[in-house]
Amino acid sequence: MKDSKNRLVAPLLALASGILLARFVHFQVYDFIWSLPLLTCLTYLAWRCSTRILCVCTSLFFLFCGAFLQVLHRPGRPPTVDAGARETVILKGCVVSPPAFSEGRDQFVLELAPRARARVSLAIRDRETPPDLGYGQVVELEARVRRIRNFQNPGEFDYEGFSARSDIYWTAAASSVNSVVVKPGRCGSRFVAGVFALRTGALRRIERLYAGNPYATGMMEATLIGESTRMERLWTDHFRRTGTYHMLVIDGLHITVLAAFLLFLLRLCFLPEITALAITAFGAWTYALVSGWNAPAIRAAGGFTLYVAARYFYRRGRLLNLLAAVAMVYLIYDPSQLFEAGFQLSFLCVAAIGLLAVPLLGATSTLYARGLAGINQPGRVPRLPPRAAQFRLELRLLAETASYYIRFPRAWWEHAFALAARVLFYAYELAVISAAIQIGLALPMAIYFHRISLTGISANILVVPLLALVVPLGFIAVLSMWHVPAAIAGWLLGVGEHVAAWHTRLEPQWRVLAPPLWLAISFTAALILLAYGMRRSAGWSLAALGVVLALFALIFWHPFPPAVHRGELELTAIDVGQGDSLLVSFPDSKLMLIDGGGVLSFGRQTTQRLDIGEDVVSPYLWSRSIRKIDVVALTHAHDDHAGGLPAIIENFHPAQLWTGATPSSPAWFAVRSKARAEKVKIVALTSGRSFDFGGARIDVISPPGDYVPAGSPMNNDSLGIRITYRQRSILLTGDMEKPMERRALSDGQPLRADILKVGHHGSNTSSIDPFLDAVSPLFAVISDGFENSFGHPHPKVLERLRDHRAAILRTDRDGLVTVRTDGRRISVETYRVR
Question: Which of 89, 293, 319, 757 could form a disulfide bond with 354, CB atoms 3.0-4.6 angstroms apart?
Fold first, then answer.
């Protein structure tokens, strides 16, 4: 890679380094008042005097520019609403994102003031009709408002920052359709209103085309328009596991496919190249707008526009230069994008293609494909490179031989062999590009998504062409309302899903963990050496490729032990909102997870878009290099305890599932079905049982052996256990309420403990004084949701705990809570205070 060919790569790296530097060094604006003018002067002098010094000065200039931009874009204080979490208030604002209806609820975004928005969730009861809201309507409603807050655990997604970049700072829950009142007048932008009108019209046409087919409707809306509200997680699981999910969401490939299709149509109409390219660029921006203005589509449209500009000025388009130019534009506009997974993956994907795939393809398929053009025109041979000319000659000889044995014209055979070669080259190029992307993105995929697909290469070869055809066919159907292309597009979508499902059965059933820092640095350095070697010699390339593949295998295998403290008993309360999920690490390093959190549904059968087990608990466990859990325990089958366990069982393959009382319920059915599918032994425990486990002693204190559960899950079904290690004990009570606490006291169960996981999230239905007298805890851990609607923990419970001189630790305030003991000393660590 020569600087003369890719002059913008070095400034981009310097700009990104400056943004990264300002993330860790607290610069002020006045630090750049003198430094940037000085660097500008030095750069100008270097340009006049020395090329070598110019490179250094230019890099320093962009480095300081990146730091300056990051300082300028530092977020200020978020806006506030004068209302408590349990207080109902009247909100009035402008609908800036029309409703997206999902099962049982309606969601839309309301702008309360400039750059201050709330995401409103409206519960829809049976036989209620949601309000017909559109962009630009002024709405007034009654709702409970709560500030958006991240789960306070290491390894969590920054949902708070992600929402703030769209100026959304609160969630608002409106409980009644009747509370929504549309006021007279209009607000917002006419241009944006037109965009939403196009988007809404397209969605309604898709619904009519695929009426009665929820799967096709949801998938086509997501694939064509970027509306994923109706797309259920189960439908996309096979695509996620095989690395083909990118074809279901609006990304750069969608822009590329549509741009190529539109350009082909325009060229058929004999439009000049530049005119056709300009119209196509306009179409790309329009599609980016209508599909939701998501970042990958915007970046792809911007890149295509820069390509058009380069063609207009007769500049040769170089992939890395184009990539660097697009990245610099977006980083100048918003430096914080550098830290977004989507931004990193988008540009690393193209960089992997440009640095790894393009050189290999240039020396193989691209070279040989030149020999296929006009294969029956002998005059083209002198203008071809030697290897391409030889390939062309051999193909013509093969056609002549085939014509001799099978009496078809030689020209027919030449065209047939050329077509077959093009198909093979296309499959080969897809395989090379897919392999380059898999290797180039291995590190961020392991860090952000804990997935590296081994079957992704062959899956992409088949799925990408199928779903690439879905995009133009789907738009032809939407524009014309013709059912034939709609049916073909739906059929292709189904075939793609079957291909992805077949590959899923071949995919290993484990997740990839984030590698240690030394391995990440080594792998990055090896990739750089591979990209350098591919432009130098075959020997360099093979040596570097061997190192890359060895490190890639090490990342995938991850033979590194979990981050646990051997010789200590640990209790970690994971912040799962209003619910429970407790990690217990035993002295001999065995691991047990008690409950998996979940979202309360209050009996409603709704599709939850957030899986606490997959999206909250698992990332924390993976951040500690935990790949396997020995035992999973379910205290009782309420959604906020059991909802996340199916994902936990699938991700961490426990040997046993311990349970309390388990009356029939959808939550218990889901957990039991997953346990049986994964061949997990289910063990029901009752009080009075004691046994050694993991170097500690476990006493089961609840439920009693004669306990008869009700017809549906109840708090007193809870499994309660006491874990003792040397002189210290931990008491875990689930959601045990007062009757079961009194039963444990009357049965003489061993209750004395230094650390108490307070029952029922601190509700006043638990933690009676006699029970606390028997336990006499030093530390009381409460797992509850931030600003939860139940008012947990109850002030009386907090008062009783203080009266017993217990130090109170709460996940809603402290985030992740960890208590460790070596059997004598006790140490405490929280997410907010380490």
Answer: 319
